[in-house]
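Quick question, first post here. What does this chain look like in 3D?
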Amino acid sequence: MSVKNVKTCCKVSLVIGMLLFFQVSYGQYNFEPLQKQLTAAKKEIGKNYVCMVYKGGKIIFKQEEGDLKTNTQLPIAGCSKWLTAALVMTFVEQGKLGLDDKVSTYLPIFATYGKAYITIRQCLSHLTGIQSPPGIVSVLQKNKYATLEEEVNAFASKREIQDNPGVAFRYSNIGLNIAARVVEVISKKQFDQLMAERIFRPLNMRNSSFYSNRAVNPSDGAVTTAADYMNFLAMLLNNGVFNNKRILSEKAIEEMEKAETNLSMIQYAPAIAAGYNYGLGAWIIGCNAQGITSAMASPGAMGCYPWIDRCHNYAALIFEKSKNVDQKKDVYLNLKTTIDELLPGHCE
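> Answer (accepted):
Ran it through. Tokens below.
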């Protein structure tokens, strides 16, 4: 055998060996129970969906059904809030903003209309006390404002204070949009530009945006893909690091995951989040025996349910095209339970 042929054989053997290694690595989990459950749940989640699970630095499960793929762009509604909270935390990291700073320090109009004591923390946790339309209508209504500035000024001048700040939780688009306007003022840049620079580009979220021909909506206006959003979840799960690059500090992640509410404060929450407390930009869907957050999720009304689980050390999401998300809480939780059982945890 010639030297050339020997070298070729060695290269082929190396490639085959690497493929076998990754095949074993990818296939060490038996996801057949999850696949069966997804099939059984098609009536609820529809025929077009993506389900992904990330653990140990890689995707360990991916299932695409129908015309929905991991790179298909979708509006994600309320899942946008988690992204916006993370963006605001980048300013906190830099010392340009404090979570307990008064909004009126940056937006004087809030002092003028008697809302001077609302803090950034309260904005990120729906505790502003500002009156909002009942139910999910306030989240999905068509934006009538030309700019985020115009919308937030209207929150200050045209909405009454329904409760003292920090007392009552009402899920809406008000608080996150106020916080987003604050970082626009601090940076002198538009929100969508800030999101691209500080979150999307560092996380290789190339197919994600908050673009709108009306006022950008930081609470509900993101368009993204399952693959892109999984990069964001991976960063959160890895305590602020993505591809060996730090996006947020561990302290910032801890702040985002601390409960800002207790259940007695919840005056309005969508049915899919009933019974949960809220952190900064996301719901706390699990706690360990010591009461420390172990799992968080940020479901959206358009059919997207992303979450991270620290007890089992994984991130997962389901992106689908069907509606009536509020009726699917049990479906999503059952899928999560199945994944939890397949990936042994460490929490007591």
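DSSP finds 13 helices and 13 strands in the chain.
Residues 3-26 form the longest helix (24 residues).
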